[in-house]
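DATA SHEET
Item: assembly model
Revision: 1
Owner: S.N.
Input lines:
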Amino acid sequence: MPVVALLGNPNTGKTTLFNGLTDTYSYVGNWEGVTVEKKVGKINHSELLVIDLPGIYSLNPITKDESVAINCLLNDSPDIILNVTNACQLKRNLLLSVELLEFGQPMVIALNMIDDLKRSGINYDLDILSETLGCRFFSTNARNKDGLAQLKSELISSPIKKAAVLHLNYPVEISNIITLTSMQLMQQFNYTEPFARWLTIQFMNKNLQVRQYATDHHLHPLTSQETIFDSHNYESQIFNTRLDFINSVLDRATQQESSKSHQNITAKIDHWITQPLLGLPIFIGIFFLMFKLSFDWLGTPLSDLLDSFISGPVSSATAALLTQLGAIPFLKSLIVDGIIAGVGGVLTFIPQIFILFACISLLEDSGYMSRAALVTDRLMQIFGLNGKAFIPLIIGFGCNVTGIMAARTIEQPKERLITTLISPFVSCSARLPIYGLFVAAFFQKHQALVVLSIYFIGIFVALLMAKVYQWLFKVKETSVFIIELPKYHLPRLDIIAMGTWDKGKGFIKNAGSIIFAGTVLIWLLSNLGPQGVVTNINASFCALIGQAALPIFKLIGVTSWATVSALLTGIFAKEVISSSMIVLFHLSGQTGLIATFSTLFTPLSAYCLLIFILLYAPCFSTLSAIKAETGSIKWAIYSLISNTVLAFAISMIIYQVGSLFI
Amino acid sequence: MMQLNYAEPSHQTVTVHQMEQIDKPTATRLHSLGIHSGCELAVLRKYPFHGPVIVEYESQRIGIRYSIFLALIGGN
């Protein structure tokens, strides 16, 4: 099956274009060589596969994210490259296009966001661009699906033909080296001419990935000249040649239409949003609104409605049906008290979680996220991180696994490691159900505020630990921080819906798999004991395990073994904690649980327990993400132990000190 | 007094003098954005306490750290 790879600068609308081209919902493929996920989709009514790759500025990777894209080029060799460019910033987008054209694979360039360009009164002659660069150009506006049909039919209908390789007029000295070295590579390693030339140019240009490739493949014609190349500063000569070429192309292709005076909306919004003094308060305000919406105004009423439906009609109808069918009491109890109560109890949080995800998607789509990174940068500097580390932390509110993956955009390896290690302290959506239960029981009046405080404690501990790690790892290098501020977009409903679904589908999938399994397991453990089926839960396996660990947990105010057992199950997935509690306390749903809580906890011990749940051992998925991203199981084991110890220490201090006053 | 009405302000422009004193990854990234010695940047914002600086170059807005900004325009 022919493969089309989407490559281009960040913020050029690749993913929107990808979703527009592939009508079938994309699946995530795990590709050989790298344990990294790329989005793969298929163009409807065709055999073409499309891969969506992370945005890259050049073929010389600085971040791990960029290495993924370049690895795909080097190892998977796609049949067609679809280079997505931002038409408004064509000059610098073409710097990448030139590198890709030198690679010699068939290529199509999409001038995306063409509407923004038109608004600025500029137009490009696509024929001149096609002719000078030797590849087809299409103008698109992926957000409105303009131009996608033509692009699609070009990709489907045109046979894949050899591309005209772009040859730039590099200075004579460089030209000679390229010719000579690529000849040697062709003779000794059977490379094609375009690939040999491309390797040489990239090697001279200090492309780290290509240098690694040359070392791995023992490309002596290149490696033997490394020191000579580096002493000549070829890099800047190559850059200047490319820039001059692009300038001359654009001079020919640019058609200045009437210089319309357009209202610059982005400048107007940024006037307030990035205001030096107001920027940070606005940032906090936006997040406060987000939480109010999810946990007070909209999310909680909807969740309550869903809860009364599941624990009421659904539960009683199933019970009646099972009785009618003559199911044995053990099975009936497993389904009604175990699965419906437990899994259903977690599902009632769908409204709150999806509203939170919709808000995050809205911020991502509008272009606010990079402003958030900017206004928080100075603050993050205090903790030795940069503003970009803030984005993975915010994404971690959804799920720590995606948060950890988002840390790939951070340039310095040590900073990336630190961001990965502190990510689990960020309160993910899976922890929400249990907060929801406790705030409903103990903090009726200040629900949003209490939940927000937990989230802030999470962020605070994360930043504090970042500082500790800076000191432990003896980080000296200053961090790289360059962030583009894209134009604001009017958010589009379908894009937000898709983003929300992308983030939230994991939660629903978990409900069907790991939460289901965890709930059944805990139900079995609580109904079976050393003597077989038990009627008194106090004689069950669960009670035995919980009671053994209870003395330690008394230090943080936990007095019931059932709570301890529920906490242990949280390592499967955090959502399981609340479903386990419902099962262990033998209740039909949230309402019963809330009433039981008031006899087991005080507001202080409840709050301490929430802090413990916030900070203790990451779930299995997060642990495996830590292992994958750091490339070592040691960091995963370290996180498991250190986070639990830290959680214990902090909640114990709060409980013990708090007990003196309350 | 803070101005409540928005008016397109005129911004200070600076010239990039050198990129040699900047660390390698940062210089590479700036190059990829098309920024090179001799180009003119409009300075849109400077954050307090030596926070980031927003510059505009060929209708793209970029946030960079204060130290990099100083190095670009020729200071240390």
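QC remark: Confidence is low (pLDDT under 50) at residues 27-36 of chain A.
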